[in-house]
Amino acid sequence: MTSAKTRVAILGGGSGGLELACALASRSTFDVTLVDRVGAHLWKPRLHEFAAGTVDTSLTEISFYMLAGMRGFRFEQGEVSAIDRATRHVVLKRFEDARQETVAPERSIPFDRCVVALGGITADFGTPGVKEHAYALDTRDDADAFRQTFVALMIGARETKRPARIVIIGSGATGTELAANLRQAEDSFFERDGHPEDRDRLLRITILEAAPEIMPGSETKLRARVLERLDALGIDVVTNAKVSEVEAGAVKTASGASYPSDATMWAAGLIGIPVLSRLADFAIDKKGRILVDDRLRSTVDPLIHVIGDAASLTPKGAERPLPPTAQVASQEAAYLAKALPKIVAGEEPAPFHYKNKGQLISFGNAGAVGVLGGRKKKEDFLIHGQFAMAAYNALERDHQWTVLGPLRGSVAILADMIMPTSGPALKLHG
To answer: Does this model's pTM top 0.85?
Structure first.
């Protein structure tokens, strides 16, 4: 009999990875190490609000260092380069400072169990000009870079009376929510005492979607309501618009159309981050994600689990893998939090089953719409207005409550609701 703790290395501090780290660290039988490239956790579903400058909560970004001390896990900041399956070590690249000078050599972290939760990135599908002339929205740095450009464009538009033109490629949640929040942010650039006739649009927003309809794969009634909201906000939506090239001042489509653009946001879907295919000899799907079985184990090593945007799990009877959403990652984390103790004890856990709880889209101060899932597909129902907005905010509040713990989470969330931030979000540090 041994009292040694099971060493769990969790790679990636996104919604799934962080929730799992907090859950496992509360158990005395686990020694948990969380690894992430940056020092603070960001609630990625609201990244578009950082880009638009409409964030209204101080809890959207939370320090990993503070959480590690609070919740009982160890945090290692660094970039993962490999998983040595033979020696059971995770290898981290040498650590560099802001001047790109090495301050720490290559490190390795031993593990008994490893969970890959490194997330995904926006795919450019090899489209010419995307890397050179378009923004993505994968990280806080991406959001800050776009925000800086947006502010400059809006100031220029106000002074020259020539509207700024922004083209968003992709009509999924990221694209539609960003468009709505940019329209909300536009109000900040009007003169408060200006006359109504002076408040002509300083901003022209166009969403381009390659598919015949917006938000491919979403419920028909949700798409219809989203279109209504976008139209009310004066946002142009063009479908069947497959982008063939992005230039410095325009976006071209395969049909020969050209859309002038002062800033282009590429939000055309997620794939696994490139490092996933280099970590080890994992089986990878066509979108660069690691194949897993119904217990979220990698197909090449049962001691390595994969969750969130890094995982490719096709449920029994389904035509395609589960979508790369925070909802999926959170459910997978909750499953592993209960399954891993059983596995370590020599038991075989039940398979993971995903329950689609619906989809919610926020339009900033224009409200929210969504479809909540029932027990059966025909029981799904459309929501909108204050109820939808409350449900949208509840998703993040639930995540914050999970990672901060019941007591601290309740106190912090209550304080944040009473005195929300007005402007850029603040990091919560200990």
So the answer is: yes
